[in-house]
Fold this sequence. Notes:
By secondary structure, the protein is of the alpha/beta class. Among the domains are: about 60-105 and about 310-365 and about 490-535, FAD/NAD(P)-binding domain, CATH 3.50.50; about 190-290, Guanine Nucleotide Dissociation Inhibitor, domain 1 (Orthogonal Bundle), CATH 1.10.405.10. Helix content is about 30%, strand content about 25%. It has helices at about 10-30, 50, 55, 80-90, 135-140, 185-205, 235-240, 245-260, 270-280, 300-305, 355-360, 365-370, 435-445, 450-460, 495-500, 520-535; strands at about 40-45, 65-75, 95-100, 110, 115-120, 125, 145-150, 150-155, 165-170, 175, 290, 315, 315-325, 330-335, 340-350, 375-385, 400, 410, 425-430, 470-485, 505-510. The strands form five sheets. Strands 1-20-16-19-18-17-9-10 form an eight-stranded mixed β-sheet. Strands 2, 3, 12, 13, 14, 15 and 21 form a seven-stranded mixed β-sheet that branches. The two termini are about 30 Å apart.
Amino acid sequence: MKSGENYNSRRTFIKKIAALSIIAAVPSLLVSCKDKLIEIVLKLTGTNHILGHRLWLKNFPKPTKEIKIPYLIVGGGISGLSAARQFKRKGIEDFLVLELENKLGGNSANGENQHSKFPLAAHYLPLPNVRDKELLNFLEESKIIIDYKDNLPVFDETQLCFDPNERLFIRNSWQTDLIPRYGNSKEVDNQIDLFLLKMTEFRENKGKDGKYFFDIPMSFCSSDESLNSLDEITMKKWLLDNNFTAEEILEYVDYCCKDDFGLGIEFVSAWAGIHYFAARKHENNKYDDTILTWPEGNGRLVKHLNSFVENKVLTNHLVYDIQLNSYGVKVSTFNAKSNESITVLTEKVILATPQYITKYLVSERKNTANNFHYAPWFTASITLTDIPDNGSFPLSWDNVIYKAKGLGYVYNQHQNLQQIIDKKVITYYYSFSSNDIKKDRKELLKKPIEHWKALVLSDLKIAHPDIDQYISAIEIHRIGHGMISPVPNFLKSKSLKEASKNIENKIFFAHSDLAGISIFEEAFHQGINVVNKIVDGTTLDS
Length: 542
């Protein structure tokens, strides 16, 4: 949940100044575009699925070069970068990172145009639980946490989401917050209040071992199995079984599940759905329920992690074969730019890769990986002269349209304190939530950009009927495997545990999908834990 409330502080003052600056600039931007011929520049980007699909064929040239390195990290997403950081924290410099894409960050990477940076996927970080010392240390190291008071972190206010942080378009009007609250019947409001109360109970509940049932990272969760049955049913079944039948609450929880898991309440497990609401403890009352965000989304966090891999990365490199040998591990990788293959000999390799890639590299993981499900996504970063609106509630950072096909959009310049903004940039999100995600994935990759442009515009026009008259450019970014989707009988499954086990203490695994939930914190801890295992023989964060 990303809702919050105002409080009296310097941060509120900064937000008000920002809001007034934007309002002052509006008159110069409200230029009528009607009756004009509008040409929208379209651009299609995405993860390198064409190169990735060569893993099926393995038609690569024979290696002509050889590299020897004690430690190799395959994958430059958050888990891989976190592992690199942990190596350096332990005084180890002899490692190399291989990355398929032309830049690092995975789902936390960002794009940029002449008007603004923008996220390509992950776009915010909720405030961490106070027991997550590793993440707090990283945020302090990155100057996101600037102090501690009463044992609680003090955050840089310019990196906390300014007000207003979110709004919902429902019944032809914008309202604050994403939970439908205006125009409801008394029965609907009662169901919403009861649902939030139930989530508070889950948030506070602990198992017999004294640990929370729901926590972040997942490794902090209680081993008490008394709630494991929640993983056997869908979130929708749990809602209906508990008499949460109002359309408003079903739509809200469906949105939340799609936001974190790619799939909605019909497909994700109840345990996962409840985890979304109950795992974050909101211990710091000063900040209530706000989040950390930046124009580039979690690309800001990638930037901080990149400092640990300077001159230690080879991008555009696809690893296509891994074999154990007398040295340790023999890794074959293809340089897509020079069209040549390289052999890397390493003592230990960390596969910071999702399981749909890992299964082509390690034969022992093929059957296990088939139990992992990934929802396809696309984002559309849109440049506009203005965002036409009915004025019922101000433009916010997160803007969601009730019962739309997509998940709404974020306003990427929300944190911008400039008095005049020439053009606005928003990023629209769409997840394919269905019972046939393979078909959805093929559709995403095959259909032309005009199809997705029409879908985006039809969604946005629900709240902004004339928005196409203000758009100058749309960049659509396709992600065939967006994130791990925790369907029933997955989070507590044997296959999830098996996928994390190392092979002969030489091949190690680290990725957010091994936690079962694709959020920054899980990926971050996966990288730390795997290095601790390699260096110290422990799996606990240290």
